[in-house]
Amino acid sequence: MKTAKDNIFNNIPAIIPEELFESLVERETLKIERIVSCGHNTPIGEWYDQSLDEWVLLLQGEAILAYEDGTKVKLQVGDYFLIPANTRHRVEWTQPEAKTIWLAIHFVAS
Fold it and tell me: Could you tell me if residue 13 is inside a domain?
């Protein structure tokens, strides 16, 4: 297997018109991605509803996740959170004046 060194903070565009999703590793039951937000949120009335569990780590910035039941979770640098598969959620808010960088790991729980 060929390996390559990179840095999670490299190659981030200065202007991000839409939330940036970049797959770092992808297998049948595993996906690791970098997400970069800058004041982005999920449009009102739209929900993520994924078939895999998602573990997220906030590397930079701040964000608020919202669940369909009204629960909200504020995330700051270093916070991590597990979103179980098939749990409807959305990004309600990300810091508008700075980039928010997420590490998201999508996987099948055993």
Answer: no
How many domains, in total, are found in the chain? Answer: 1
What pLDDT does 109 receive? 85
pTM, entire model: 0.92
Measured in residues, the chain has a length of 110
- The CATH number of the domain holding residue 55 is 2.60.120.10
In a domain, 5, yes or no: no
Tokens of 58: 């906030």
Which three-class secondary structure state does DSSP give residue 104? Answer: strand
Q: What is the average pLDDT across 57-78? A: 98
Task: Output the pLDDT for position 2.
Answer: 57
48's tokens = 């993520």
Give residue-wise pLDDT tens across range 20-38.
Answer: 999 999 999 999 999 999 9
For residue 70, give the H/E element and its range. Answer: none
